[in-house]
Amino acid sequence: DGEGPLAFRRHYHDCWYVLFTPVPIIATMIENQLLKSGLKPGLYGVAHVRALYRVETEGRDPVRIADWTRKAIDCLSELRPGPYFVASDSHDARKAALEYSRERNVHIVTRSEASVPVHMDIADASQDVTSLYDVFVDLYLMSFGRCLVYNMGGFGKWAQLLSGHDFTCNIRWNTPEKSCTW
Asked: Which superkingdom is the protein from (predicted)?
């Protein structure tokens, strides 16, 4: 059809925004986070660290999660300068990102929601819909970024599709096919 390999990404983005608009409370949460953090759409990098994927309820070792988080940010720093937004399903990852920010004097933003974001693929159908708000805030904030690194699950890829960007600067940082060199 002559549209090229990026047509799906472009059309996915367009279709999403035609069919879905964040409800006012989620839109407000997104805007408030952007204002509070100083992040500007298209002008920050994104690291997604899914640390609790397919793990028993006890979670993963906090030291391992911190190591993953640092590697993800190191990888992202190879793609573009900060600021960075770090999204994760783990409090330990968000804490490690803020420690990295202080140690390296890099502007890193992470959300400080009290709850662990719900994994939509394993969510209980009886859960209150408000438990998903933080998931969509993270998703939209990730989609507003310019470069993306992610490790596992499909959330990072979903944000990439929503962005509509070419995203030539994206890496699934924990695989040998397209890994970072640190």
From this structure: Eukaryota
Whether the model clears a pTM of 0.85, i.e. scores above it, the answer is no
Residue 172: in which H helix or E strand, if any? strand 170-172
Nearest to 91 by CA among 57, 72, 120, 66: 66
CA–centroid distance for 77 within its chain: 15
Contact in structure between 66 and 169 (CB atoms under 8 Å): no
Q: Can you name the residues that pair with 109 across neighbouring β-strands?
A: 85
Q: Are 71 and 150 in contact (CB under 8 A)?
A: no
Residue type for position 62: P
**DSSP label at 118?**
P
Give the model confidence (pLDDT) of 112-150 as tens digits: 766 666 665 555 666 777 778 888 899 889 999 988 888
**Mean pLDDT, residues 89-99:** 91
- pLDDT of 182 strictly over 50: no
Looking at residue 21, its pLDDT comes to: 84
**What stretch of H or E contains 66?**
helix 62-79
Share of the chain above pLDDT 90, in %: 31
- Domain ranges within the chain, ordered by starting residue: 7-172
